[in-house]
């Protein structure tokens, strides 16, 4: 029986060999330097966690409003008045920048690298929206510096862009806030832009616009060439987007080829069908390979 007790369910637990006269938690001196230090650590970690969660919510709002701006801009291909939609999109982007101002205020005095993961999704979507609007206006790519200039805010301007840069001392008096888009956020946002431009081509062809697909095709080729220089040497997220970018470029180029070869013999109202069929064939070929 003693053997069973030693090897079965009645075996002694390891801590049974220790004396039972250990101190209870209530006997711990809460005013000791060690306890005070750990209490300050707890407060700091709680504050940092709360800030992180607030930034995640702001990033979600930025993402949603940026997507709505992109959806609005897609209406330009069928709208009679382009300027009206561009003006409305600028109002929406101003609202997004108000959210980014709140992010800048939350990050004041903090290391942005510790909170970058919480806000990167929203910043990428904002870059995509603002670069899409810029392309529609100018048929060119907005630079990272231009984007960052729009993210300098002053409290007197209710968060609008400060047109006159000032010194650090004056910045503190004026209550200036700023947030800089990182190169990775910029590249990922531009990579996502290519997908929206491919959709813009489909909508343009459907409305009988033959010029826009060729303009977009040339632009996408330049963007793809730029990303090719980065290749696998850049961040993993950037190189992962390169495949999707290549797909968008292939769809637009093959559709432009079909339009160039058969565009003169096909009525304009049927060009969209040619475009759609061509992209479906490309998708099937990519699926096989």
From TrEMBL:
Keyword Disulfide bond: no
Parts of the chain that traverse the membrane: none
Main subcellular location: cytoplasm
Coiled coil: none
PANTHER family noted in UniProt: TRANSLIN AND TRANSLIN ASSOCIATED PROTEIN X
Function in brief: Acts in combination with TSN as an endonuclease involved in the activation of the RNA-induced silencing complex (RISC). Possible role in spermatogenesis.
The name this protein goes by in its record: Translin-associated protein X
Organism field: Erinaceus europaeus
């Amino acid at each position: 029986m003693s053997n069973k007790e030693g090897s079965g369910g009645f075996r002694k637990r390891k801590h049974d060999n220790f004396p039972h006269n250990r101190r209870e938690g209530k006997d711990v001196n809460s005013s000791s330097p060690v306890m005070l230090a750990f209490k300050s650590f707890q407060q700091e970690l709680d504050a940092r966690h709360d800030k992180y969660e607030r930034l995640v919510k702001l990033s979600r709002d930025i993402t949603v409003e940026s997507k709505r701006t992109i959806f609005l801009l897609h209406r330009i291909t069928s709208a009679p008045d382009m300027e009206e939609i561009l003006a409305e999109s600028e109002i929406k982007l101003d609202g997004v920048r108000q959210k980014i101002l709140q992010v800048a205020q939350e990050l004041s005095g903090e290391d942005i690298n510790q909170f970058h993961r919480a806000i990167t999704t929203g910043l990428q979507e904002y870059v995509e929206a603002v670069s899409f609007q810029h392309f529609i206006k100018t048929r060119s790519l907005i630079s990272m510096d231009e984007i960052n200039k729009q993210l300098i805010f002053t409290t007197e301007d209710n968060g609008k862009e400060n047109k006159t840069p000032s010194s650090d001392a004056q910045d503190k008096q004026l209550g200036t806030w700023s947030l800089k888009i990182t190169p990775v956020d910029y590249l990922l946002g531009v990579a996502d832009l290519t997908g929206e431009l491919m959709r813009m081509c489909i909508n343009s062809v459907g409305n009988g616009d033959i010029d826009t697909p060729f303009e977009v095709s040339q632009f996408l080729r330049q963007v793809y060439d730029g990303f090719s220089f980065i290749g696998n040497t850049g961040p993993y997220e950037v190189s992962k987007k390169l495949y999707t970018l290549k797909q968008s470029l292939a769809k637009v180029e093959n559709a432009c080829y079909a339009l160039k070869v058969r565009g003169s013999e096909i009525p304009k109202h049927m060009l969209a069908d040619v475009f759609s069929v061509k992209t479906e064939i490309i998708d099937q070929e990519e699926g096989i390979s």
